[in-house]
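The data layer described in this paper is built around a simple, fixed record for each protein. Because each token names a local backbone shape, the row as a whole describes the fold. We quote a single record here, exactly as it is kept in our systems:

***
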Amino acid sequence: MQKSPVQWSQLTKYQAGTLIPEAPGKGVLIQECFNCHAFGKIGAVGRHDEDGWRDAIDVMWISGVATIKPEVVNTVSAYLANAFGPTSATPMSPADLPGYQKIKMEHDYFSDDSLNIEWVDYQLTGNPGDRPGVAKEDKNGNLWSEIPGGLLRLNATTGEVKAWHMEAPYSRAGIHEVLPSPDGSAVWITLEGQSGVAKFNTNTEKFEEYVDQDAVSNYNMNRPAQKEPNDPFPNLPVPAGGQNGAARSHTAALDPQGNVWVSGRPLKRYDVETGKWTYFSTEVPDSYGITVDQKGNVWAAQFNSRDNQDIVMVDPKTNKVTHYQPPAGISPRRLKMDSKGNVWIADYFGGHAVRFDPNTKTFKAYKMPGPMPTPYGFEVDHNDNVWYASMYQDGMGRLDPNTGKFTEYPSPYNEKGTRDMFAGTQGRIWYGAQPNFKVGYVRLRPDSELRMVAQK
């Protein structure tokens, strides 16, 4: 078999962002568009004039995937017409650029161990607007994913998918993440822009929304300064990003009393018995990752805020907040708990898996491989191995904390867009692939299975 020319649409976000020509609008393209996808969806394998690129961008609006600001459409379409227009000097194949040799990743880059992995993914509703963030398993083995304005359920055995949407005014609400309850009676979803949560009753198949509008309004009067949360390239056109610091909900976790803790702006708690919200607006004004340890303490990572980059622990009995400052340069995004009570942090911009020992109050950072690891999806499996999905390198990796060794795994997608991961049963690590409208899992094949394959 002969190799075909490398296409722009095959590049990772890191590769594409490094190789595309320097010209006005490049920074806007990377900061505004690469958050969701790069050339795997842009499709820069042909050549279009400015109107052609504008039409391509409009497809996202027509299909309900995204609404793009007019000024961004104009800037990006002009840049793409310059870089990938009918008379552009940009090669049809990025491999023809001198810089390609520095950033290419051939198949022999991966170790033999990295090939002992199984990928399984599932097509969902087929609606381009139903972009899943993650898949989380309930007690019955069903997988739940968030989609705009609702959620869906996947039967991993049959492949059956069923979706539910909330009614107005939440019918197109941004849903950041999903959380099945331990008893299977409910699934919680975070109402991102409304800074609340919704509860889906799995028996009645009805939603109930909970938002404290007074608390939201009070918080928005004193918003924390922001930083760009996704783009790791330097010299960004808008260093503060585009989130404006308004109140929002990110990820939910349940404490031992069944109360719902929600990261975002700010960290907050919804009391399921009284229906009241507690806002930690001063102590934790801006948070992202969240988890609960074996003692019932709530942990959160401060990430989006320009001036708040600690991890925090909250005692739910007293509401006391304790801050722990990571080493300089660590930007904590997701955080998860291992079986020993250690807190693991995904250092998005620095490219580390960081362990915090609550007993000794010490941090230990493990540098991830590659030039731009950008760990976004993050999980600790049932054997305390640490998994991560790279947003800009697109691969998936695993850290064995006992040896400090990372294993990188090739991905079936050049753009996976995985924002969270979930350790389910049967050794499966579930993920979402937003640009591909799929969810799926990876599974390491055990030695016994590999021996059977070798014998055949």
Summary: The helical segments are 13-19, 26-33, 39-42, 50-62, 70-84, 100-103, 213-220, 447-455.
